[in-house]
Write a structure and sequence with these properties.
Length: 376
Amino acid sequence: MAKTDQGKLRELILSELTVAVCIDTNIYEQQQFAFHRGLLAEVPALTRSGIRLVMPDVVAFEVVNHLRDKLPEGLNDLRKAARLACNYGLTTEAIEQQIPSGDVDYRQLASDRLTSYVHRTNALEIQVAKFASLSTVIDRYFNLEAPFESKKKAEFPDAFALSALESWAEAEGSFVVVVSDDAGWNRFAESSKRLLTGVSLKELLVATQDPDVVLLRAVAALIRGDGYESIKQRLEDNISGMDIRADAHSYHYAEAEVVEVIVKSIDVSDLKAEDLSIIRNEEGRLIVSWEVQVDISVEASVSLSVYDSVDKDYVVLGSESVLRDLTQWFDTLMTLEVSVESGEPSLKFDDIELTASHIDVDLGEVELDYSDDSDV
């Protein structure tokens, strides 16, 4: 029972057995600690399906530490962007002055943010020292059992957290869905009678919802029809505002910087209800998961350099402007307003956001263009 999927998980939820979920630190980091939007913002809705978020104190410590480490760079980037925006007249000095200055207690800021999320999700905080079995962890260490392995022998925080989750679930007569991208976590869960693995956070959220085919057909029709242009524009806004990591291949050392991204089209020609999944449906708001194929045009500036062994530094040879047309797949969450008119659902597009933390773009091979088109 340790290995599950979306269908089996739904059956377990409907059976009214007690089910909880533990989200590993790497998922919070993958979602850029965006507790207020995206998939993490949907976790509080799980409680209405009888699923409770459990958070071992080890995971809480890791989340706070990882977020604390991200904050200084984020604040510096914000200060630079605000100063530039104010200089350009896009914002006012009043907005710039709202940004924290001087010394900032990054740990406290990170801790407060996580505490707010714990309260909002009504998460149960588990004291690892109270539930973990020291003898079990030591046995796993010397036998190189998950989460330990020959190349990762210092996994004691994970081992204690997982042991505590297993003991807590046994004491509660519960099952805990482990959502993690860590192989050690998932192998541990696969060998457990109380921990379940094999589903993503999105799949867990979908498993708690009724798959209303009529409603999803209406959503698909809206995407193909009246909502297409608005969705396309909003996707372009989202993609332009994301961290876009462009990679160029060259005989020289290449550094790429994206200048502009344009959404050319969205492939909706064969879109069906089965391509969409309901994440949340309540109080006139519908949130749908959609993996969308987007044709984009990327303009980038690629700087090419060579290493100077004398000066021990890179010497810039020049730069090339690169324009590439690419097809990308994006996981998205779409929000719609829902009303019922004459027994039929009436939908209005509200917003769409990407769940990825960044976008990888392959610019292909780039070399310097030495051709001279002048008439001289």
